[in-house]
Design goal:
The model has no long low-confidence stretch (mean pLDDT about 95). By secondary structure, the protein is an alpha+beta fold. It has 3 helices and 5 strands, in the order E-H-H-H-E-E-E-E. A 5-stranded antiparallel β-sheet has the order 1-3-4-5-2, covered by helices on one side. The chain has a single domain (about 5-115), classed as Thiol Ester Dehydrase, Chain A, CATH 3.10.129.
Length: about 120
Amino acid sequence: MKRAERVVTFTVEQITAYAEPSGDHNPIHADADFARSVGLPGIIAHGMLQMSILGCVAVEVAGGGAHLRRLYCRFSGMVEPGDTVTFTAEDAGAGKLALSAVNQRGEPVLTKASAEYL
């Protein structure tokens, strides 16, 4: 059974740098004071940054980006600088992948994650 895993410890620099290529300049991803003013613990990582890392892991198991047909997940937890997230993709048979993203406390940060490939 094919399986791939990537462990990422998120940094402030990584999170703020992602804003430019993504076009998502929401201050909750760059300004800790602003993030706290709207009820967050501080800067949080973009959900799409997390999903893109999960997608890279899925591509490894699918045999390349040309084979990946669908990727789905729900954003279920906040990722803060210093959090370490383990992204996993595993062949679930019949062109399907089981995906997960779990932080260092064992809490899922992406749920209902799956992918389809050729």
